[in-house]
Design a protein that fits this description.
Blueprint: E1 5-6, H1 8-12, E2 19-22, H2 26-31, E3 39-40, H3 50-53, H4 69-78, E4 87-90, H5 96-107, E5 115-118, H6 121-128, H7 158-165, E6 170-173, H8 177-182, E7 189-190, H9 207-216, E8 225-228, H10 234-244, E9 250-252, H11 256-262
Parallel strand pairs: 1-5, 2-3, 2-4, 4-5, 6-7, 6-8, 8-9
Length: 271
Amino acid sequence: MSEVVVPAGWLADRLEDVAIVDVRDAWEFDGIGHVPGAVNVPFESFRASGHEAEGEGGQDGEEGMLPGSDRFAALLGEAGIEREDEIVAYDDTHGVFAARFLVTAQLYGHDPAKLHLLDGDFSSWQLDHETTSDPTDVEPTSYQATPLAEGETPLVDADAVAAAIDSEAVIVDTREEWEFEEGHIPGAVRLDWQELVDDETRGLKTREEIERILDDRGITRDRRIVLYCNTARRISHTYTVLRHLGYGDVAFYEGSLTEWEAEGRPLETGS
């Protein structure tokens, strides 16, 4: 069984053995409480700022909203995380921000088999487990972050996406319906990332429900899947879910529609 997305009970059994990353704002981490032993790495801290993301990509000339390897290494080092650690990340927004953290870690060389998303976000932990507002003692490390080499990374650029339009690949737009209708990459199918989430539990829908939704859109394991949204946040969740389900050929368009439009590439409108 996949351990990409894990329940609160799985984490409870491993509290002493994993690094736990809370990506909520600092005031939530301190004021509302957090999982015991968690460290706070707020979402905005591992995203390129607006001016960094314009034109040539994020810090260090990297793509889209990636923060840059030096900045990400410093963040994880300050949080006391080692390159060999098992990491469980959570937020309070159905996992979309935590998934972005995990994808970023993978893109900078952390072993994806050691990256886990807490199913049902922080609320699933609160239901049955103790929380704390006590600060977590951290011993800084010298974390090494190295962007994955070509051939190892799931990242693709706009040219690769354009080539996928006339191939057997499925280009998947993970935004809301109104956004899709205003303009999308030609040939894309729409899969709002939230369609895979149960609003009541805040976690993933059952595997059977998710498989049915994916099959209905033609998003099947025998085809290459190319994901995009606006700024690569929402596709992080869908990418994580597809990894959880065992999809092997999933491409991640970090530049997403922000870059696609900035380059003057064609759009389709309507549903």
